[in-house]
Every structure is written in structure tokens, then in C-alpha cells.
Amino acid sequence: MTDIQAAFSDPQFVARYTEGPRRFVPGYDAMQSMTAILLAESVPGDGQVLVLGAGGGLELKAFAQAHPGWRFDGVDPSAAMLALAGQTLGPLAPRARLHQGYIDDAPEGPFDGATCLLTLHFVDVAERRRIASEVHRRLKPRAPFVVAHLSAPDGEEERPLWLSRYSAFLAASGVEPEQAAAARNAVTNHLEILAPAQDEVILREAGFSDPTLFYTGFAFRGWVAYA
């Protein structure tokens, strides 16, 4: 477990979590809105959606508010983050079943759609492949899978440039320069960032078709693909 992953069980970090994504992820709110739009192209009005990395509950709340008939299964390894998700959902909580654990702890489905936002950069390539395959197995035919995470070109000059831009975004968002620099170092040293082409290959190898880029925010990228 990396220091970044361990933070999700730290009470002080969890208490402040809902303030963070909008400052640390370029276009965070728009990315969530776009995700809901992509899901809604295929997910019926009474659909069931699998949400991996659901701790905190921000995307669950956004999806639930946008689509009152949807129900959700949210999965996250951190009990503290799942408790926060319940608080974030408030009166929407009865529409979401929360499961502590990993993809193997998710219900079998089949689901009408699935998401995995800001999560896959915490695991290595082999585990990403396994997660993608297990999600695919739990989806109905042609159901959408939306992913978004750190993904940047791996050239010797390109990746440092994108990470520098990301650090500059943090500073522009009000993050203290020292904290912005520390965030860049943590991303560089503790997370396994793939090139966009590698991320697309993982989706295809898991059985997904038509992986299409829909979101780019400096060092972050997002795709929709279909089971």
C-alpha cells in the first residue's frame, strides 16, 4: 500500500476529502457531468450502475441527482471513505448499496453501466487488467464503462511537461506551492501512470470495444468503452 492509498483511512484526510477533488483534478465537475451523460446514452431510466472507487460519494451523489431512477452498487476498500459516502449522499443513500472491498467484492450484476473514476492509477498494470476483465464480466452486452485517471505520454520530455502543467494547475487552484510540488512528487514516485495508448489496450484486452477519449485535463484522461 502506498502512502497515498493509506491516506484514505486517515480520519483527518477523510474529513477533508470532499474539498479536494475540485482543486486537484482539472475539470472535475465537468468530468462527472460528462460521465453521467455517457452512461445515460445506454443506461435505462431504472438502471443499475456499478461504481468502483465510490468512497467519498461525490460521483454517486452527482449521478443520483442527475438520474432519479438509477440505483447503484458502490465499492471501495476504505470503510472510512464509505462512511463518508453515506454522509455525502444524505437522503439519496437508500438508492446506493455500499460494499467494502475490491472488484471481487462487487455484486455479479449484470449491470447496465459502470464507472471507475480517479482509481486505476493506484494499482499496477496486472491489477488494472484484472479489474477491467471483472467489470466486463459484470456488465450487460454493450453496457458502457467510463474510466478516468492519471494518464500521460511517457516520453522523456512529454511526461515531465504534463506533470509540470498539472503542478501549475494546483497552484492556480489555490494549493500552496510546496503542497503542489509535493503532490507532483507523490504522483511521480508512488503511482503507476500509463501512456494513453496503454490504457486503451487494457480496455480492449478485457473485451471492451470502441474505447473513446472524452476527457483530458492536463495529466488526467477519461474514456468510455462498451462491453
UniProtKB/TrEMBL annotation:
<keyword id="KW-0489">Methyltransferase</keyword>
<dbReference type="GO" id="GO:0008168">
    <property type="term" value="F:methyltransferase activity"/>
</dbReference>
<feature type="domain" description="Methyltransferase">
    <location>
        <begin position="49"/>
        <end position="141"/>
    </location>
</feature>
<keyword id="KW-0808">Transferase</keyword>
<dbReference type="InterPro" id="IPR029063">
    <property type="entry name" value="SAM-dependent_MTases_sf"/>
</dbReference>
<dbReference type="GO" id="GO:0032259">
    <property type="term" value="P:methylation"/>
</dbReference>
<dbReference type="InterPro" id="IPR041698">
    <property type="entry name" value="Methyltransf_25"/>
</dbReference>
<dbReference type="Pfam" id="PF13649">
    <property type="entry name" value="Methyltransf_25"/>
</dbReference>
<protein>
    <submittedName>
        <fullName>Class I SAM-dependent methyltransferase</fullName>
        <ecNumber>2.1.-.-</ecNumber>
    </submittedName>
</protein>
